[in-house]
Amino acid sequence: MSDFDDMKIISTYTTKEAVADGYLVRVAATESQEAGIKFPVYLTRAVWDKYVEVPKGMESEQNLSGRLWDILWMFRVTAKSTPGQLLLFKLNCRLPDMGDWEKNEKIDGDRLIRTVTLKAFITAQDFDDPSPAIFIMKPDED
Predict the structure, then answer these.
(1) What is the dihedral of CA 103, 112, 52, 81, to 10 degrees?
(2) Model confidence over 22-57: pLDDT tens digits?
(3) What one-character-per-residue DSSP string does the chain give?
(4) Residue 24: closest CA among 39, 36, 42, 6
(5) Nearest Cα to 30, choosing from 76, 72, 87?
(6) Distance CA 41, CA 64 (A)
(7) How far is CA 115 from CA 6, 11, 23, 38, 106, in A?
(8) pLDDT 10s digits, 46-88
């Protein structure tokens, strides 16, 4: 018998609730499977808004599905060679020039190509669903 056997769960915040509240975005199965990923994929709202949504003024040269593909593909490439359930992966992402570029960023016209690091965690899909799922977030998110 462990010390935790008598503990009662006071509160949970499920994946379903986080999706309903907009804190997580579920990637369509067709899109993740096309990238060769067999488990459900969720992105945090911060990742979706910054790296998937097309920035204003870039609509004629980029699209949401292409930006999402870049994230899914770079995750897949890194995951194939990374053991364990936590990994960091990098991708190049084109963003508007915010005037705060660093040495790892290249100027392409008036746009920046930034090397972005994201974190992925493979764990149970939800509190009541132990099937595996992938959660992609910024490195400072949990």
Answers:
(1) -40
(2) 999 999 999 999 999 999 999 999 999 999 999 887
(3) --TTTT--------HHHHHHHTSEEEPPHHHHHHTT--S-EEEEHHHIIIIISPPTT-TTT--HHHHHHHHHHHHHHHHHT--SSEEEEEEEEEEE--S---TT-EEETTEEEEEEEEEEEEEEEETTEEEEEEEEE-TT--
(4) 42
(5) 72
(6) 16
(7) 47, 38, 24, 26, 9
(8) 999 999 999 887 888 889 999 999 999 999 999 999 988 999 9
Instruction: Look over the chain and give the mean of its residue pLDDT values, rounded to a whole number.
Output: 87
Total length of the chain: 142
Banded pLDDT at 10 (limits 50, 70, 90)? confident
Q: Which residue has the tokens 């392409």?
A: 108
With a CB cutoff of 8 Å and minimum separation 6, the contacts of 1 are: none
- As given in the structure block, the two tokens for residue 35 are 């990238």
* Residue range 5-31: mean pLDDT, rounded: 90
Extract the tokens encoding 100.
């705060």
